[in-house]
Specification:
With 91 residues, this protein is mainly beta. It has one domain. The chain is globular and about 30 Å long. The chain starts with 7 loop residues before the first strand and ends with a strand.
């Protein structure tokens, strides 16, 4: 078990999701869902709000099987339910 968590740490998001993230993740980083990919990612704002640095992939209990995705909305768009951003707050 210890080896499977090497390079990762546990945290709780501001929305009370339990997750594991890369060791490089910091308080205030964001978790993003990239449609078409199988896992969420941790990103960090760089400069203004238009640029982000990819920190790495993560596991978030309760969103890994599409629980936040509402499906197709008007015009065929896919919506994410619950929160616009899920910020990391390390515990």
């Amino acid at each position: 078990m210890a080896l499977s968590q090497a390079g990762r740490r546990t945290f709780i998001t501001q929305n009370s999701y339990f997750a594991t993230v890369p060791d490089k993740a910091e308080d205030g980083d964001l978790i993003t869902i990239v449609f078409g990919l199988g896992v969420p990612f941790v990103v960090r704002r760089v400069g203004n709000d238009s640029y982000f640095k990819l920190i790495g992939h993560c596991y978030v209990y309760g969103i890994m099987d599409g629980e936040l995705v509402d499906g197709e909305g008007n015009g065929g768009e896919i919506r994410v339910r619950g929160a616009r951003n899920i910020s990391i707050h390390l515990v």
